[in-house]
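Notes from the pairing session

We agreed to fold both candidates in a single pass and log them together. This is the raw record for the first candidate, unedited. Please don't reformat it; downstream parsing expects exactly this layout.

Candidate A
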Amino acid sequence: MPSMPSLEQLQRGLEAAGQAHVLRFWPELGAEERAAFLRELGGLDLRGLREHCEGAARAAAAAAGEGSPGAGLDRSPDRDMEPIPPELVGGGEGSGDERSRWEEEGLLQISQGRVGVLLLAGGQGTRLGVSYPKGMYDVGLPSGKSLYQIQAERLRRVQQLAEERTGSRCRVPWYIMTSDFTLAATESFFQQNRYFGLEPANVVMFEQRMLPAVSLQGKLLLQGKGKVAMAPDGNGGLYQALADHQVLEDMKEKGVEFLQVYCVDNILVKMADPVFLGFCVSRGADCGAKVVRKRHPGEPVGVVCRVRGVPRVLEYSELRPETARLRGPEGQLLYGAGNICIHFFTRGFLQELAQKFLGRLDQHVALKKVPFLDDDGNLVTPGEPNGIKMEKFVFDVFPFSSNFVLFEAVREEEFSPLKNADGAAADTPTTARDSLLALHRRWLFAAGAALLDGPGDGPGDGEPPGTGEPPGNPPGTGEPPAAPSHSASSGGHAPAPGGHAPAPVEISPLVSYFGEGLEQLVGGRTLATPLILDEKKAEELRAT
């Protein structure tokens, strides 16, 4: 381990980078504070600090229209864009026999231990009004399960499906990229919950890098007298983190050749999706993206496309309105492949990326409101963006792929993100919960079950359940969630005929991964609701 630089060495490095102001409160720090500050500053790349700070200021000025023309920003990338060719696209609603073949291939790869999943979990639930990691959040399901628990149980079930199909016992390693903000809480949460039934050795957590936040004038911001304001380097920091923590070596040792990467906030995500994996493997892809069709031209999601012949994601802000409105011969949006941050990579592709291309990944500017200390040492909470955070995106690697493919998923089955607190227009705990419970009702109807809603509820009609606030109990307490309210004012779906929303129906991932096996369990039955179809209830149904 390299030795910690001395104060004098740090002073020289900060002065050379034009950041000597960082130490202006040094005389006021106690011994422990000084030691902690030295450790933090020793972890900075002092040689690259000047370029980081000056480059951030240049990029922010250019993005705001204040930089000189030709400052490196492509102002109209959509002028050179085209859709991904149809021959590289699969999925959709009507793939039938192909989907079955892809599923078989995916389950075979899982059974052979060649598949891993990787979760991007560096973000806190700040926009949800909580200070803990978003994966610990409970959206108010009848079971009270967190996002982490739902995902862990889906992983357990897909392992079981692969074992049942092939007779081979298998495990799917779960890699979880955290940040300085989320690592300790995530580790503790998994330990408290005994890894949700998974083998601890197959749950590998690692931390992405943190980068210093920079003022609009190119100066480091202090969040304390002995603390630089830091931020994660974006979900595209994944690739550097894989190298930093020897995660690719762990994958090789475990036999993982194919990886599904996803974000924590999608309550409908299919873990180690055998259909998506099988499609990508059967096409010989080294890189792939799962998408959903955009609802309308102005929907604020990125678009997976080609720009100058290579695959890219263009953010909705990069598309001119006239480009976003273009339609194909059948009336569909020409650029309707909405990015949902579910990707496929081969380990070989990631290994090559780590060896050759890390220094070529794009940097993106994010202007943020960053609390900071003023010259007098007072903490200031700004009302307007005052800081620059440089970050990378996970899809920045698409242009380096030699065989990129696209897989279209059905939104109602696979994508319902959790981004905002209740009261927002979309992507709230209520909409996420309703999406999952509505999917489970559809599964039961498709399996031949009838639902008899309990006293006080309207007739079951397959519509999503009513609305409700997320429970107030902190995650991991073991307390049951508060009963959901059916108030229409909280932004949920309209009640069923009769004035009441359908009673909630929740199916445990340990019972069914994507609706499979339910026909034998509930076909021809009338089930009373509200209903939690967990393993215990499933055993009761099998016994009657």
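Candidate B (folded immediately after A)
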Amino acid sequence: MFPPVLFHLPCGLFIYRNSKPKFPINTSPSQPLLKMGKYLTNLIFPWKVSASRQDKMNTHTFSLLLLLFLKGFLPADSISPNEAKLKKTKLPKIKKENHVLLLKTSNFDRALKETKYLLVKFYVTLSQSSQNLSEEFAEAARQLKKEAPTIQFGKMDVTHQHDLRKEFNIQAFPTVKFFVNGSREDPIDCKGVRKASTFITWVKRRTGPSTALINSTDQAEAIIKADDLAVIGFFRELHNDSLEVFCETAKDVPEMPFGLTASENVCASYGIQRNSLVVFKKGKPVHTEVLEDGSQDKLSLTRLIKTFTLDLVTEYNIETSVKIFDVPVENHILLFTPMNSETFSEIYENYQSAATEFRGKQHLSSEEIPQDWDKKPVKVLVGKNFNSIIFNKTMTVFVMFYAPWSHECRKLLLIWDKLGEQYESRKDIMIAKIDVTANDILSVALDRYPFFTLFPAGPDFQEVAYTGEYTLEAFSEFLEEQSKTKAEPGEKDPSEGIKEDFSQKETVIREKEL
């Protein structure tokens, strides 16, 4: 007699090895099931047993266990209703209208989760502008359906969704936002885009390369002649800060093709010797902007380039007003004159001459950079060196914006000098001040004097407005707290790195995007 040995079947049940089972008489399994049972029985019990010996074997409940085991081999349509309920119900697809997902609060999170890139139009039912955009938005979705399946377009009626409008800071309609990797945090605003082709370019530049790499003159000419306007960046090398700003700018200007090159032959063909941005209009260069690291930012380049989407003098009407105000320019000059006037031609000619001279330029007042601006504990900032100092990557700058005629400012300057002395030995923190009555600063919002702002070090900084008490202790405590918040685990002491020389830098003042 064989010693009893336990075997563990996949179903988690045990059988005796010394008993070769048979199906009980009162069970009638199907022929395929019997064959399967016989096959598995032979696999599990490979030895042969005589008939007399078999009669003496105990017939356990193995046949029932084997049936349970074989149940996993049954066809799917034989699963009982109770078992079917346990299976996860597949949710129906989110409905679409003209290739655009119909979103609502109940399926919005699911749409984000199921879509890598989601461009959403938030609208209200009574908005004529929202209705006007629908056709172009749908056409862009249709064209991208097969070309880029990871990109989806959606629309949501937020007429009564006040919480959602508040969450995404929706103040005008329609508002279009771009969600990436299922996150509803900090979606990217898609501003000023109204044509299907422009929507497609805008999305592609955020999901892939934002510019075309040019290696030959023929490639450059193809881009220049592809549209009325084109922009090409000429660089000495493909790894520098100016190139990064150029590529980021291309994402916000989908109206025209962008290309970049570091080819010496291509640069020589166009007579370019320094890092430069060139705007071409109808195949001819109309503007060249020299790019130096730290001297330009995305907003200033966007403003410069978009001015060329307008005529030198544009007639203001309902159709052109949207295009005019899409250009992020702080000041617009309007001429009111009857076109049937005898003096109209002369006035228009003089007006156009002035537009030629001032087009794309910023005229912001600034004092000259003092020779001893960085010799004292509190550094002196002016318009010409403001950006290069506060938007650097190596130092945190705490700035006091003051007006010299303010009695409160004059009192606080004494405390500010003491704060500068306290942090004079710190290589990672700079205490600075700027006279806002003599220097136009558009990169920060000034609604009172004095005004204090901290500009943390690093490429992804977020400026922090100071709202505490005006005392030496409070200023110092605020600085220390911000330094701890900014510090990363294992971060090296900034004083061990290279101190950047800001003394010779000038920059164009940056305006905060509206």
